[in-house]
Amino acid sequence: MKQKREERLRMKNKQVKNIEHTLLSDNYYILNKVTFDYLMKSGEWVNQMREVYDRGDGAGILLYNKQKRTVILTKQFRMPTYLNDNEDGMLVEVAAGMLDKDNPEDCIIRETEEETGYRLKSVKKVYEGYSSPGVMTEKMHFFIGEYTDDMKVSDGGGLDSEAEDIEVLEIPFYKAVDMLHSGGIMDTRTIVLLQYAIIHKLID
Ligand SMILES: Nc1nc2c(ncn2[C@@H]2O[C@H](COP(=O)(O)OP(=O)(O)O[C@H]3O[C@H](CO)[C@@H](O)[C@H](O)[C@@H]3O)[C@@H](O)[C@H]2O)c(=O)[nH]1
Ligand SMILES: [Mg+2]
Q: Where Mg(2+) is bound, by residue (predicted)?
């Protein structure tokens, strides 16, 4: 399927040809060395190499409650951030997960329940965007969803089978916005969705 996607791209972009993959790791997800020829504006074909990490696509959701003026966020240990300046490695994030075979809507509804314990009936897609376009294939689907207390069906916390250990936070919206400015929130998808909530006045 990945190959097909690239065939389509190759057909659409005449500046790119001879795409070749060398597998560097399939230990958990897929890391490929990808070489290709690229036609520069100067008219010269240049051979380029990129390491490309493929772990599929993802989805994230901001849960909000207009009446209570609150949002639901999660907190969990993220090793890569621990290795890069995040003092204790803990990160405050919107509920998020990787897509499987399901469509993004069903997937984020399931992920929301696993991580936060809230069973949503409906969600609204607001954006699609590439997470880290120079390195990863991952496209993120951004959602918002209204929650109420009666939607809480379990503690959440993530799947034990995947050793997820997620703290569920219900915090006032203004506090989350303060955290945006103080550096208490450093996950870009969470920043994007909180800014969406500000711009569209989801909570006044
Ligand atoms: N053993 C092992 N397990 C892994 C590894 N990488 C991921 N996992 C397992 O796969 C699970 C994936 O959980 P999800 O909730 O589906 O994904 P996520 O880690 O929350 O990722 C979401 O957020 C990321 C960062 O914001 C996004 O990059 C990602 O696309 C997604 O939206 C993790 O809990 C972990 O158990 C790995 O290298 N080794
Ligand atoms: Mg997750």
A: 96, 111, 115, 164
Distance CA 91, CA 184 (A): 8
Nearest to 128 by CA among 120, 113, 139, 138: 139
Assess whether 19 and 80 both reside in one domain.
no
Q: Which domain holds residue 31?
A: 1-54
Binding site members for Mg(2+)? 96, 111, 115, 164
Could you tell me which residues are beta bridge partners of residue 77?
90
Distance CA 39, CA 103 (A): 36
Task: Determine contact, residues 73/176, Cβ cutoff 8 Å.
Answer: yes
Phi, psi of 3 (to 5 degrees): -60, -40
Query: What's the pLDDT tens digit per position in 88-141?
Result: 999 999 999 999 877 999 999 999 999 999 999 999 999 999 999 999 999 999
58 C-alpha to ligand 1 centroid (Å):
9
Calculate how far, in angstroms, residue 117's C-alpha sits from the geometric centre of ligand 2: 13
pTM above threshold 0.90: yes
- Quote the strand ranges of 40-98, DSSP E: 45-54, 58-65, 70-77, 90-93, 95-98
Model ipTM over 0.90: yes
Q: How many residues does the chain have?
A: 204
Same domain for 131 and 33, yes or no, is no
